[in-house]
Design brief:
Order of helices and strands: HEHEHEHHHEEHEHEHEHHEHH
Mean pLDDT: 93
Strand content: 15-25%
Low-confidence stretches: 1-23
Number of helices: 13
Helix content: 40-55%
């Protein structure tokens, strides 16, 4: 499975979504669950996918989107795919990696040189093979990958070098590989559910958290953190996964239609995230937040030592193939 995208299509895709006429209810509504806010492009683009899918399947299938952990935390919705309690999810690669370890490699810290390296990986034979391995292990199907953004550390004290994180208690998502970055720099990772992060920062349960700039804005973490430190330690992405029960219940034409629609949705959201990343540093400064430029070199050197250590859920050959992608 290769996902070829042209991000210039994003604007026209959104326009097309907005112009589609209202249609009668679909015969079958697929439940699409995620943990993000209704204001975020992951959600708005997924909502717009309903009309696209209804058109493509002549009304046999539509989509109902459940945002903001309304059908469960990220671990819950991953488990729900197999039970059929959810049909489609957005999820981080490291959460999918709980079921098939090698797919986690794309979510590990400093695994990619830059955005282009990540984009070429997304369209590579390696990613297609890892996606098939995930399907073989779970019965679920990865149909698209959406750019989530470069993850940065927010904190109440500046983080300019690895030693600035020594002893810092930092919230990370509840998947083991998210702990690789903080552990490499001497911080103490604290897995906390996404919906609970704002309160944990506000109450001082943790000192810091890490997420892309659009998420920091949407979740309002900047209200309870004084510094945004541009560590860019993970070039992150969301997998769109269709559960086995839903997939098996569709004929081949409808599966192809769903795959195409989720790919269009990935383009829509990716476009919006790229645009936001280019604008938000100045927006945060306008809100009175200190945005710190960071020399990433020392952070990269600290983390690379762990890439193929005990925490790795991939083999050396997979790592070497990813690094060889140009």
């Amino acid at each position: 499975m290769k996902i070829k995208t042209k991000f210039a299509l994003g604007v026209s895709t959104v326009a097309m979504m907005g112009l589609l006429p209202a249609m009668a209810a679909a015969e079958t509504k697929l439940k699409w669950a995620h943990v993000y806010e209704t204001s975020e492009p992951y959600h708005t683009c997924a909502v717009a996918a309903n009309d696209l899918l209804m058109t493509a399947t002549d009304g046999r299938y539509g989509i109902e989107v459940f945002p903001a952990s309304s059908l469960g935390k990220e671990v819950d919705i991953n488990e729900g795919l197999g039970f059929g309690t959810v049909d489609i999810i957005y999820t981080g690669q490291l959460f999918a990696g709980r079921s098939y370890g090698p797919i986690s490699i794309g979510g590990a810290p400093f695994m990619f040189r830059d955005y282009d390296h990540w984009d070429n990986y997304r369209n590579s034979d390696l990613f297609a093979e890892l996606s098939q391995g995930y399907t073989d292990a779970t019965g679920n199907h990865i149909t698209a990958m959406t750019y989530y953004g470069a993850r940065h550390v927010t904190s109440n004290t500046p983080v300019l070098a690895p030693e600035d994180m020594d002893g810092m208690k930092i919230r990370v998502p509840n998947a083991p590989l998210y702990m690789m970055f903080p552990e490499a720099v001497g911080a103490n990772p604290a897995p906390i559910a996404f919906a609970e992060v704002y309160l944990a920062l506000q109450q001082g349960t943790v000192d810091a958290q890490e997420n892309p700039l659009p998420t920091i804005q949407a979740k309002k973490f900047y209200e309870v953190q004084e510094n945004i430190n541009l560590t860019g330690h993970i070039t992150d992405a969301l997998l769109t996964i269709v559960g086995g029960p839903a997939w098996d219940g569709m004929d081949e034409a409808d599966r192809e239609a769903l795959s195409a629609v989720t790919t269009q949705t990935a383009v829509c959201a990716t476009d919006a995230i790229i645009k936001a990343e280019g604008e938000l540093a100045e927006w945060f400064r306008g809100e009175g937040v200190t945005v710190n430029e960071v020399d990433r070199g020392p952070f990269i050197e600290a983390v690379k030592k762990l890439h193929n250590g005990e925490a790795a859920t991939w083999d050396q050959a997979t790592y070497d193939r990813l690094q060889a992608i140009q």
